[in-house]
Amino acid sequence: MRAMAKVFVLAWFCLVGLLAFSGRALAAEPVKIGILGLDNYQAVAFTQLFNTPQEAEELQGVRVVVAWPGTVSEDIPESVQRLPEWTKAMEQFQVAIVDSVDACLARCDAVLVMPLDGRRHRSLAEAALKAGKPTYIGRPLAHNFSDAVAILQLADDRQVRCWTSSQHRFSPGFLGMRNHPEVGQVLGADVYGGCPLVPHHADLYWHALHGIETLFTIMGPGCESVRCTSTPVAEVVTGTWKEGRVGTFRGLKTGAVKYSATVFGDKGVSISGVYGHGVPVNGVAPTNDKYMGYEGIARELGKFFKGGPLPVSHAETLEIFAFMEAAHESKRTGGAEVKLSTILEKLPKK
Hints:
The protein is α/β, with parallel strands linked by helices. The chain folds into two domains: 26-164, Rossmann fold, CATH 3.40.50; 169-293 and 311-344, 2-Layer Sandwich (Dihydrodipicolinate Reductase, domain 2), CATH 3.30.360.
């Protein structure tokens, strides 16, 4: 009997150990990411950050395992040139290349929608959301306002976690201006960045979105009205926020292009950092610190894919797109003031 008892106890401890080991193994299993669309360098950047050893905890436990390259957009030269190159680059990260959206969705836990072309985003996002996959959609969310609204609405209806953002939002020198000790409470900001206009996307949706999202990063949500001045040199959009705060975006069409800002606060005035770098100190923006580039947003993606909250709410994303739509309407009406409420009240009611 004693021998049988010893065998039973030994078997019990073996079972407990096996279960504990299985639990650790299960916990160590990375979140499997699938990419839809490989003509965008972001797809490569995110894959490199997730699939190679990283010190940052947020980048650990997430791995790109499968990708569907998608098709080129013939009217976007970069898409034509880069799709073969970036597809080939996936080999070094051991990413399986599949020949359909469904095949990609079947082999992953969550999705990155990555085509350069925002016209392709709605159909791909719909496929991912209908499959119940947590989804991030690269800049721009869509090529027009109606598609952007439809994607967010579907995510809400399906109760599937989904978000979008420019990587500029998580550049330390921009994000750190909201509570900068030399600035204090932000009363206004003048942001500037590139603004090429293209026939295949609504004005401001292409590259200008980076600067506009930077403006919201610094100012926060709460914009009430917009005016737009358009010339061959620049698109200048002035937004009035609650409590009379004013923020502007200068979209640079010609000349030198740089992404930065001047921030006005109740304690002081300061330049912001420049894209990829840290916050200014004594009015000087660092450029010899660690370059973050895509790492800032990749860290947010890592937290999101591991169950963290949406880094940017649907409400703020919708406000950003309403801001751009109001700017378009102001431009069409010769610079008249357009209230964001007139844009948002046209949305379909639930």
